[in-house]
Write a structure and sequence with these properties.
alpha+beta, Phosphatase 2c, domain 1, 8 helices, protein serine/threonine phosphatase activity
């Protein structure tokens, strides 16, 4: 079946005031429905399709996209359309190349050691994996702590390796090997233990937001630091995480700290931040048909509020009919399952392959535009003004950006 997003056209323009690119995604043709016209302001430059080396984990990428709402077991009640989009701080955002549509049937290999095979997300990283042969899906975000670069350490190594280990642990899950089963915090713990044993990663750290969406509609989230999530339901914010920080701009963080560094810090009467998965906030949620879950790094939260993310998501969901205005308010559209179909590749047009990809691109593009906007103060700027009123900080905050979006579908609806 061809993608419902049959034509997505991007028009680029430049504004001297923002020194940024803005594109307008419009003219979305809907299969089997009336045409809707929406306009989204994103930061980007329209380029060619991504090469293989720019895609996500090779083991997570197939040549033929698959209907992501197909449950792996017939007794599951819920399925999830999941996608990610990302942009490194110092690179232009390309919505064609910097997007990944999850296929639950793809094989996930062990950790990538060739940095050229990583997504071009800078020090941010993400993972999405089914939990062995179950309808459950694990996904998450890790934001490498940039301060390690001052010690000659690439912060991306920890974040990307950590996510790779969590993805592989979920994919190879065996209940007998997990005391009490796999939970979000347990998966974070397993990934942390594995990266700490990796001889190729001698130092580094990251924040983490890890979730497991169950086939019965339950969601468990473990959040450590200032990455986080928001759960959106029918044009409203249903729940959201609170950042964990030791002080302003000093989030909780998992770390590998060499003994030499610890000794040097102790000699000067100081210490090194070292938080652990046990310190993560764990929350449980009951999902409903049509919910949208957004996981993101602080490159998003420092530039967009939850309300601004809701506006982006609502514009897209209502624009394509995934959410609908009715006499009783906003309800879920009747054909939501069709909206998370991946593109079958038969159309010759440039396409964003699914609703979840379109949402991820929309949020990433909006955050990128806000990060280079020098006139509109974002959440980070407002925090600086609160804690350091004499600092002349205005506008957004340039940073790596990573977003994972999950659209919830209930069987039979």
């Amino acid at each position: 079946m061809a993608s419902i997003f049959r034509t997505v056209s991007f028009t680029a323009c430049r504004t001297d005031a923002l020194l940024s690119r803005r594109i307008y995604a419009s003219r979305i043709s809907i299969t089997g429905a009336a045409a809707f016209h929406t306009a989204l302001q994103l930061t980007s430059r329209h380029t060619q399709r991504p090469s293989q080396q720019n895609r996500a984990h090779p083991s997570q990428t197939s040549s033929r996209p698959i209907h992501t709402s197909q449950p792996l077991q017939s007794n599951s009640k819920f399925s999830y359309g999941i996608a990610a989009s990302f942009s490194a701080k110092d690179e232009r955002y390309n919505p064609d190349a910097n997007v990944f549509n999850f296929n639950p049937y793809n094989r996930i290999l062990a950790r990538r050691k060739d940095t050229r095979t990583r997504p071009r997300s800078g020090q941010d990283a993400f993972f999405i994996s089914r939990v062995n042969n179950t309808p459950d899906v694990a996904f998450g975000i890790a934001d490498g702590v940039g301060g390690w670069a001052d010690s000659g350490v690439d912060p991306a190594d920890f974040a990307h390796g950590f996510c790779d280990y969590m993805a592989h642990a979920a994919y190879t899950y065996k209940a007998a090997e997990w005391n009490g089963g796999m939970g979000a915090r347990a998966l974070m713990q397993r990934g942390y233990e594995d990266i700490c044993r990796d001889d190729n990663v001698l130092a580094g750290g990251s924040t983490a937001c890890v979730g497991i969406a169950r086939g019965d509609g339950g969601l468990e989230v473990a959040n450590l630091g200032d990455s986080g999530y928001v759960q959106l339901r029918l044009n409203a914010i249903h729940s959201a995480s609170e950042p964990q920080t030791h002080a302003f701009n000093t989030p909780y963080q998992l770390s590998i700290v060499p003994e030499k560094v610890l000794a040097q810090a102790a000699a000067f009467g100081g210490g090194q931040l070292r938080d652990f998965p046990k310190d993560a906030n764990v929350s449980h949620h009951e999902l409903r048909h049509g919910d949208v879950i957004v996981f993101a790094s602080d490159g998003v939260w420092d530039n967009l509020s939850s309300q601004e993310i809701l506006k982006v998501v609502s514009r897209i969901m209502i624009g394509v009919g995934a959410w609908e205005h009715t006499e009783d308010g906003v309800n879920v559209g009747r054909s939501l399952n069709q909206f998370i179909l991946a593109d079958d590749g038969k159309s010759g047009a440039e396409e964003i392959p699914s609703l979840q990809s379109f949402l991820a691109v929309g949020i990433t593009g909006e955050a990128k535009a806000a990060s280079v906007n020098t006139k509109k103060d974002g959440p980070f700027a407002r925090q600086v003004q609160k804690y350091y009123p004499y600092e002349n900080w205005r506008g957004g905050k340039m940073d790596d950006i990573c977003v994972v979006v999950a659209v919830v579908c209930e069987e039979g609806k």
